[in-house]
Amino acid sequence: xxxxxxxxxxxxxxxxxxxxxxxxxxxxxxxxxxxxxxxxxxxxxxxxxxxxxxxxxxxxxxxxxxxxxxxxxxxxxxxxxxxxxxxxxxxxxxxxxxxxxxxxxxxxxxxxxxxxxxxxxxxxxxxxxxxxxxxxxxxxxxxxxxxxxxxxxxxxxxxxxxxxxxxxxxxxxxxxxxxxxxxxxxxxxxxxxxxxxxxxxxxxxxxxxxxxxxxxxxxxxxxxxxxxxxxxxxxxxxxxxxxxxxxxxxxxxx
Amino acid sequence: xxxxxxxxxxxxxxxxxxxxxxxxxxxxxxxxxxxxxxxxxxxxxxxxxxxxxxxxxxxxxxxxxxxxxxxxxxxxxxxxxxxxxxxxxxxxxxxxxxxxxxxxxxxxxxxxxxxxxxxxxxxxxxxxxxxxxxxxxxxxxxxxxxxxxxxxxxxxxxxxxxxxxxxxxxxxxxxxxxxxxxxxxxxxxxxxxxxxxxxxxxxxxxxxxxxxxxxxxxxxxxxxxxxxxxxxxxxxxxxxxxxxxxxxxxxxxxxxxxxxxxxxxxxxxxxxxxxxxxxx
Lengths: 254, 280
Prior knowledge:
Distance between the termini of chain B: 57 Å
Helix content of chain B: over 70%
Number of strands of chain B: 0
Radius of gyration of chain B: 20 Å
Oligomer: heterodimer
Order of helices and strands of chain A: EEEHEEHHHEHEHEEH
Order of helices and strands of chain B: HHHHHHHHHHHH
Largest interface: A-B, 32 and 29 residues
Shape of chain B: globular
Helix content of chain A: 25-40%
């Protein structure tokens, strides 16, 4: 299987505080990794390092571009936490999705007919074609997240990273999102940050516990004891009738 | 009698200034309103007074001094709020009052009476100098070219800086470029509306436009048209009634805003009523 990104002995943090220590992680094609851990444990820092927003203090992040990338092709797509943008900003759904095709090499870049067509197609596939011309202020939280998901995948990334996509959205969107991710996983690797361990373990293939360091767990089944062993003190919440695969007893050698 | 006015060169200058100001303020204003950086723009505007004071004291064109002060303030706010841990609004307040303080001191120690001071504070479109007009012309060309060629990048960076960074857009460069253009636009509009009132030229037309459209480009065009109407109305009214142009323009724009808002409210109510009637 092809590697997409690899973190080698990464140490990262802000100003005077080291948040992540000696993180090693390789993301492969078809991976579906759930990132869990307590608040302040470094989940978002990990993402920032991976998408290049934060330079590691030491260690390195290695990217493996596939070579056959076309102009719009990008290695990593990113869905940020929802509450960061201004929903009164005068921008249409179409323009938000088009921004996913912006090019690092050319700030003078214009959009082509083919790109507009691609956006319309993606919105159609995502079931939100009717929102194309709407202003983002007219959307519900769930609709807005769908639009941001389209923006993250419009450039056909090899890896899609989602930062707590289920915060502030309704349950209906949440279950639709997980179904959509399952579908997307056939085309790209996925890494999803969540504090909602109970739900994500049902969908992901493997788990990364992040609390200042990173423990990779090559299975989606994890017990309370293992979480404790990984220094990952989080509460596992049962979710009504959503089946989840967390077992109390589990023999897994480390 | 109306057209005879254009035989006076001062009136031709004033008209050209009105047109160019409408274009530059229409574009720069849409950017600052969309990004909610009106307070930053207020800081830049008032800080430029420091440059005006220094210009008076050393005897060079106060607008040149104002330009230097406002650009430094703009870059200072952008830099300090991003790279240091001082909070952005505190930075703005400090630089805002620092500029004013420098201006007050230098105007105080300048011997004699500062005759034109009032026109910098309150603006006078009828006394726009040819030099100011040339600068305004160059700015118009620059800002139009920047927006035509970099529109997508500017829009994306303004909307979501963090995402723009992840796709590799030069966010810092775009931010510094834009804040500099905003600063220059403000300074060159001081002659028209004055330090105290200039901000309204960059916000009221946009607010009116925003009532009718939520599209960035359409807001720019509609703001330019609105600003054009406002500044020509101000120009004629201030000429005929001999009152300050800046205040006249703002008064006119506010009336326009109230009319637009009322129109929209009535329109929405009527549409709702007809929908209810159709269902019944």
